[in-house]
């Protein structure tokens, strides 16, 4: 029986519980390992220890690390990859996708449509930036999830004050055109297959459509999902070298699509409850297929 290391500090979370159950149902043994409790060693070999386990052979790694643990998670993934273990997703893909501006650079270089965005690192450039990208704008931290660190600035004064505060706190931020719609699409991609999609609609009290910010979700039937949405979602995931991704898309004022961002650790709760699609089982089947192709499987 092969063992999958499930990197998660919160075993009570819906996604963690669903993935663990699906992996066990598929015949895997599952080790739920808190990322911050690893010791990684370099002594001619890549060794590791964890507070909760002794010496154990791990066949694959499934990271469920939040944004604050991105760097730590990437180091752990790189360690296991150096041992020849399959990681869903790997360290480089995780780092690339978690950098909100860097990921947009990669997406645009791949020919994908993204919102007009500007990044700057010094207060001396703030006014010039606001001259070229006039409010209303969205001010975003370069890292974060679930809508945290995302603010709407409807005037130049508000945008300037927000940027001053973030710079004072030494937080990196970017400024993005405001897309006026109150809903976006979350599309789950596994490999080159679109698994599920839902529309997320913002509440009356918030411009953000994230479910953690009070947004509401409804399923989109893949049979009627716009072919362009599916194609852009697959291309966005591939551009960032992700095997598993949540791709967020939104329409601009002219109706054309934009890729907002790509989440390398997408939540399962909203999408499974909205659509009824068993994403966890599909992930477990994918892990089995990847190990089988490498000559080992549960």
UniProtKB/TrEMBL annotation:
Highest taxon of source: Bacteria
GO molecular function: ATP binding; metal ion binding; ribosomal S6-glutamic acid ligase activity; transferase activity
Organism lineage: Bacteria, Pseudomonadati, Pseudomonadota, Acidithiobacillia, Acidithiobacillales
Coiled-coil annotated spans: none
One annotated Gene Ontology cellular component of this protein: cytoplasm
Family annotation (Pfam families): RimK (PF08443), Rimk_N (PF18030)
Cofactor(s) needed: Mg(2+); Mn(2+)
UniProt keyword ATP-binding present: yes
SUPFAM superfamilies for this protein: Glutathione synthetase ATP-binding domain-like
Descriptive protein name: Ribosomal protein S6 glutaminyl transferase
Domain ATP-grasp, chain residue ranges per copy: 104-288
Keyword line: ATP-binding, Ligase, Magnesium, Manganese, Metal-binding, Nucleotide-binding, Protein biosynthesis, Transferase
KW Disulfide bond (keyword) present: no
GO BP field: SOS response; translation
